[in-house]
């Protein structure tokens, strides 16, 4: 017969799962729960790591799936519009059911993301061994987790895989703008002194995500600068004097700022893909180093050790 999780175990499990509703802002809570409960309760530690995976890896999959749905929806709408003869009445009749289906898919998928952690929190509140679809069983196998039997001696989770999962979720969290940096930061603060591997992976991830975030804000600043430079040279009627040197300069500044912003924005997804690749490599057993950043962070850490 399975042993019943204690009240403390259930509380940490519930907190870890319910923090998913904060859309990234609660990503530090499962890490705190794992750090506090590991080697105390396999149940609470596993549920915390599973909740972290849902917020990090699950959020990545959810975002990518959402993008696929949006792209397919746009393609369908374009195809429907192209097949019509131009009659407004006929166009409305054809578009209406498609728009309803797309609306249901978009908001239904969004609701599903919130529904699963609510179900998980309720199940854990009653001491159930909840597992997310696909993710839960794979993670249990990866960590060597089995629900404790009342008559058996406790066998703890695979420590190396715990640390690798924690580090990998930090890499995957790059898609969570700003708040994703809480994952590697919290892991570093709570467990960095005990594991050089987790410390290094967390710090290089934090530096990498900070650099990607700075680039994104730089793109916004450049676009804003060009826009306001153009706006400053327009008159009260919103007209721009193209015959003056200042008017032409405003156009050039706006064009240059727009080009730089577009180049940065097109480069950002490549950084996100590299972050996902880093997480995958860490899970597969590699001591992954980001280009340039990884070696630089490692040298700094080794100097401190010496």
List keywords for this structure.
single chain; 306 residues; mainly alpha; 73% helix; flat
Describe the structure.
There is one protein chain. With 306 residues, the chain is mostly helical. It is built from ten helices and no strands. The chain has helices at residues 7-18, 28-37, 42-83, 88-125, 135-143, 159-172, 182-191, 196-232, 245-283, 293-305. The chain starts with 6 loop residues before the first helix and ends with a helix. The model has no long low-confidence stretch (mean pLDDT 86).
Write the layout of secondary structure elements.
Elements: H1 7-18, H2 28-37, H3 42-83, H4 88-125, H5 135-143, H6 159-172, H7 182-191, H8 196-232, H9 245-283, H10 293-305
Helix pairs in contact: 1-2, 1-3, 1-4, 2-3, 2-7, 3-4, 3-5, 3-6, 6-7, 6-8, 6-9, 7-8, 8-9, 8-10
How many strands appear in the DSSP assignment?
0
| End-to-end gap | 51 Å
Spatial extent as radius of gyration: 25 Å
Mean pLDDT metric: 86
SSE order, as H and E?
HHHHHHHHHH
Which blocks of ≥5 consecutive residues have pLDDT under 50? none
Number of helices: 10
The largest sheet is: none
Give a brief rundown of this model:
The chain is an all-alpha fold. It is 73% helix and 0% strand. The termini are far apart.
């Amino acid at each position: 017969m399975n042993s019943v999780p204690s009240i403390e175990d259930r509380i940490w499990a519930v907190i870890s799962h319910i923090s998913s509703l904060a859309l990234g802002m609660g990503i530090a809570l499962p890490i705190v729960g794992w750090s506090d409960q590991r080697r105390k309760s396999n149940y609470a530690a596993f549920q915390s790591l599973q909740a972290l995976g849902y917020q990090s890896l699950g959020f990545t999959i959810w975002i990518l799936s959402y993008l696929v749905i949006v792209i397919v929806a746009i393609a369908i709408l374009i195809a429907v519009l192209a097949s019509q003869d131009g009659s407004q009445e006929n166009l409305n009749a054809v578009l209406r059911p498609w728009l309803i289906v797309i609306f249901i898919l978009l908001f239904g998928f969004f609701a599903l993301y919130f529904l699963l952690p609510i179900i998980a929190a309720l199940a854990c509140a009653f001491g159930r061994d909840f597992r997310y679809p696909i993710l839960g069983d794979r993670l249990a196998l990866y960590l060597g987790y089995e629900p404790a039997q009342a008559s058996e001696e406790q066998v703890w989770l695979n420590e190396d895989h715990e640390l690798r999962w924690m580090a990998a979720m930090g890499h995957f969290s790059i898609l969570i703008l700003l708040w994703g940096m809480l994952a590697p930061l919290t892991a570093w603060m709570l467990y960095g002194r005990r594991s050089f591997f987790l410390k290094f992976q967390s710090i290089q991830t934090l530096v990498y995500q900070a650099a990607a975030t700075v680039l994104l804000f730089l793109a916004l600043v450049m676009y804003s600068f060009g826009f306001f430079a153009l706006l400053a040279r327009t008159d009260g009627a919103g007209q721009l004097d193209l015959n003056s040197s200042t008017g032409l300069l405003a156009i050039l500044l706006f064009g240059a700022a727009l080009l730089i912003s577009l180049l940065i924005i097109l480069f950002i997804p490549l950084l996100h893909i590299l972050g996902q690749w880093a997480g995958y490599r860490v899970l597969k057993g590699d001591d992954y180093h980001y280009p340039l950043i990884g070696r630089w962070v490692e040298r700094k850490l080794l100097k401190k050790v010496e």
